[in-house]
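User: Show me sequence and structure for the first protein, then do the same for the second.

Assistant: Starting with the first protein.
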Amino acid sequence: MPRPSNRARLLDAYEELLVSGVGATVTLDAVAAAAGVSKGGLLYHFPSKDALVDGVAERLGEHVAADVEALGSAPEGPVAYWLTTSTADAQGELTRTYQATLRLAGAGHAAARTALLEADRAWSAALEARIADPVLARLVRLVGDGLYLEGLAGLPTRGDTPALVELLEQVLR
């Protein structure tokens, strides 16, 4: 596997620092050190902290676009895909980027708020494209979001995702 680019390593480091509790006050020096890149190398890719925020926001958009594409072609259907990935990705790259974006939005970064809004719209539209009733699509979305939140909070899984999928599939019929 090829080594990630310095840009990717910097975004990874920034996200890890944001998510690990350092928060939105993390310094450029700390990001460079965590990525193993010189501050000059960081400034080459991200000339300011706002540029780093924009990088995280763009990355979230890329992750969401890939997820929307997968949801759109999921052979198991939108309900099973949404609920299964909601419980399975609690430690994945999408989750880390999402959490980092939440922290940045909470600290008042408009680009992060916009990225979260765009992610919400993209996921909702993808579900509505495969589930005819928009209210039922929202119900599926909210159940998946609840499962995702349980995973983020580190709550024990109940193992009832297949039963939830079946119940929602019955409601959709």
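Switching to the second protein now.
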Amino acid sequence: MNKVMSRTAQPRPRHRPPTRHDTRRPGGAPPRKPSVRSKRDMPPAAPQDASTARTAPETTQPPVRPTDVFAERLLAVLSGQRPVHWMLRHTVGRAYDDLALLAERGPLRTRGSRPVVHDIGYYVPSEGTLEVFARIAAGDRLRALAFRLELGQDLRWRCAAVETGPRPAAAQGV
């Protein structure tokens, strides 16, 4: 019986899978013929010198910031797109309990358009700690989300506190 979450490498088959021998379906598209062009249409040959060889410029993307990652994760939980236990490994202290209470109320759930992170800002009160605010846009409404991130000894960021802005007056029954 195979384990569900096994991390051991599964043995790979030593041969290729069998090919399809179904005659009812076509074998594929015919091979393409290269276009016939004259020599004057061809670009000039590049020199074979290694010093003058051109390479494509490297497109490096900036690293993803933990503020952005956690804002998206918390938004997914508080808008009902993900379950609360999805954040269990990413929280520390009472933050998980606070998150569970907030998720019950569903402060960022919307009926119309899906909420998105509009803007993110942060403050560094001490080394290894970030206090983050995010503006959440859902249609024409903006809502607030604030959370605190702490860097653990294993160099992983974890959420230590979560708060949302006050609930709209219509949702409070006023």
